[in-house]
Amino acid sequence: MSLLSIRNLYYDNAPAWYTLNKKDIFYLGPVNFDVHEGETFSIIGSNNSGKSLLGKLITGAVPKSAGEVLINGEPLDNTNRANSVRMVFSHSSQSLNPGISVGRMLEEPLLLNTTLSPSERFDKIRDTLRLVGLMPDHYYFYKHMLSDGQQQRVALARALILDPKVVVADEPFAALDPSVRSQTVNLLLKLQAELGLAFIFISHNLGIVRHISDRTLVMHNGEVVENSPTQTLFADPQHEASKHLIHAHLAMLKV
Amino acid sequence: MPNKLYNDEQYPTPWGATWREFKQSHIALSGLILLNIFILLGLLGPLLTPYEPYAQNFQSLLLPPSWQNSGTIMHVLGTDSVGRDMLSRILYGIQVTFGASVILVLGAMLIGVTLGTLAGMNKGVRSSILNHILDVLMAIPTLLIAIIIVAILGVGLSNAMLAIGLALIPRFVHAMRDVVRTEMSKNYIATARLDGASHWHIFYYNILPNLVEHIIVQATLALSIAILDISALGFLNLGAQTLLPELGVMVREGLSTAYIAPWNVLFPGLCIFLLVLSVNVVGDSLRSAIRNRLTH
Lengths: 255, 296
Known about the structure:
The structure holds 2 protein chains of 2 kinds. Chain A has helices at residues 51-59, 81-84, 102-113, 118-131, 148-160, 178-195, 206-212, 230-235, 240-254; strands spanning 4-12, 27-35, 40-45, 66-71, 74-75, 85-88, 166-170, 198-202, 215-220, 223-229. By secondary structure, chain A is α/β, with parallel strands linked by helices. Chain A has one domain (4-254): Rossmann fold (3-Layer(aba) Sandwich). The N and C termini of chain A lie far apart (43 Å). The model of chain A has no long low-confidence stretch (mean pLDDT 86). The chains are: A alpha/beta, B mainly alpha. Chains A and B meet through α3 and α4 of A and α7 and α8 of B.
């Protein structure tokens, strides 16, 4: 029994007939895969291959056109989404609200999805801040007082505060420098070991993907072209697109 | 609630940071002090005035200010052509002009911010219709729109307030729509929506904290426009009528005796100038303080 199953997921952005500026239509799917408890699942692919979109479809940030996302066999909808599947957006200047303190940022999912009392919420926020390697004092901090690495930790804390089963992270390391990046990678591995989370990574960085993930899925032009254990994929890529990605990565390592 | 007992360090909020940046500039602080003096005079004016603003005294017509040889200390800023005390009329005039401007800006702000937020949070045809119709209105100067509205409604202070208020609404709608729209496209709104937040919750919890400062900057800019327009309509005999001690009306009345009693034009004019200057300085400094507060 898998934790998260994606069944025949389709997406297209065909506009309604009255829309004036018709954009290019992007098709995605069919996507089928399973993620097990404690597993790290990576999604790789070239630019514009639809991997970020796939992450948003899984978490529901973008509505899907057809197909099913099942969590423990139950369809994922508005009632159980926040408590089970959480999304960490790629790090940017817009990932945290500059106008409210970290405490209020972390309080929001608790306010919306739990019935905890104010003091219980405060304790939960403090515990979660400790969990991601921040201090309880950071409760009172605002976004502009935190470094990039700390901001990424806050975004992670916001995802983890509801004790989810699956965390979908879109390029969580892209904007971080190498030392902070490896700190964050280690933090994620530690959290995964402690909490038994399943992680879905969307990443360009094949080095990290190879290091942390159990299975890897390769996307190309909106289609899944390969889905195999990471070691198998890196040793023997089958599809043309995965060969391109992996050979480019290996060639860079040799230099 | 968070226990702040052992929390020795002070962490500046965005507001604290804005204030810290604001008080770096002496000009900004002087503007703020001047504006506060005007607010105090407007609130306490009736308690301070030595005479009734309407009381005519035919024993003392066109008295010069007290520091001139023929002036008396009984009328510190002199009197006008029907013997009304200038100081009392100016104190009442601040209350009328400034008070009317504040009230109409608050009204325009309430309506404009509501409409702008709705336009910003909605997408598609509805929001762009609202926006582009109001764009047309913004191309016309507010005073001109106000004169047209007064021409339809008739003269009078309340009609002038209504006219200027209506003319100011598009500015608020436009500014708020732009801010709310950029806010709505940000990732933290998407995360809040994934948490199951309603529109109202997203607005109140996530957007409003970032909106307040923009509202205040817009309101100060609108306030200076409103003061100028109220006195301009009064001066043109389209707004407040002759008896009311309104600063623009006072300038117009003083104009007929400007050669023999220039103080009748000078003091109300100076008052309008200082009011607009202080509001503009505060608004402008606030804007640059908000822009710079995160840089150091």
